[in-house]
Amino acid sequence: MRLRNITGAREVIGDSPYVVQEAVQPLCPGRWSEIFGNENPVRIEIGMGKGKFIYTMAKEHPDINYVGIEKYSSVLLRAVQKMDQEELPNLKFLRMEAENITQVFGPGEVDRIYLNFSDPWPKDRHAKRRLPSREFLARYDVILKRDGRLEFKTDNRELFDFAAAELEPAGWKASTITYDLHDDAVLMEGNVMTEYEEKFSAMGNPICKYIICR
Ligand code: SAH
Looking at the domain assignment, is residue 5 inside a domain? Predict the structure, then answer.
């Protein structure tokens, strides 16, 4: 998601109490219970965009801690503004490049990972940058607890097929896989729509989803 550069976005993010600041990030591994002040499970969305999904999840599940990760300040700003309107104690944000995810979460510290409508990086030579690639799965393998799971939604069939083919070589397996999420009453129970999900499903695109574990 790219927004025009918003003047002052970086400054707002830099002053926000909801954002775990870059200077503090190296101190985070192993300390998330301390950051939230409780022992509740920590679930993260990587590439959260404006944060509608994670904000709604945090509001609906006050006994779970959520961390939203986004690399662009101008996008993250929208999520911070939602928190200004109504602050949720169980939600924090990280402005960072997800490649460095093992530098902010300790081994097994994350209970669940959400990837929603990740950038497709359609050129073969950019496959490593795709968030469901085997390179990223290896990073998730470190931070995700043993019986934790990862959930991925997208309307991009090519990206989804790529992601599904990455599972076996990376040592993961799918417990659930659908090519039309919105047509599956069981999987739709508790489904929180992301911004992209609303937009693309309204255009008639079916939404693919997998749930994977090791
Ligand atoms: N999850 C949201 C937004 C999807 S767009 C939704 O479903 O509506 C993908 C988002 O992921 C963009 O905002 C992009 O900036 C962010 N993103 C992509 N690659 C990233 C990376 N490597 N690290 C952090 N954020 C990333």
Answer: no
Give the chain's length. Answer: 214
Q: Which residue owns the Cα nearest ligand 1 atom 10?
A: 47
- Residue 2 confidence (pLDDT): 54
Residue range of the domain that includes 139: 36-213
Q: Is residue 161 part of a domain?
A: yes
Q: Residue 153 in contact with residue 197, Cβ under 8 Å?
A: yes
pLDDT along the chain (214 residues), means of 10: 69 89 92 97 98 98 98 94 96 97 98 98 97 98 98 98 98 98 97 98 98 98
Establish if 164 belongs to a structural domain: yes
Q: What is the CATH number of the domain that holds 148?
A: 3.40.50.150
Pocket around ligand 1 at a 6 A CB cut-off: 1, 47-49, 69-72, 75, 97-99, 116-119, 194-197
Whether 25 is in a domain gets the answer no
Helix axes 52-60, 73-85, angle to 10 degrees: 30
The alpha carbon of 75 and the centre of ligand 1 are apart by a number of angstroms equal to 9
DSSP class of residue 124 equals G
Which positions are annotated as active-site residues? 119
Per the CB < 8 A criterion, the answer to whether 66 and 92 are in contact is: yes
Contacts of 57 (CB under 8 A, 6+ apart): 43, 64, 66, 192
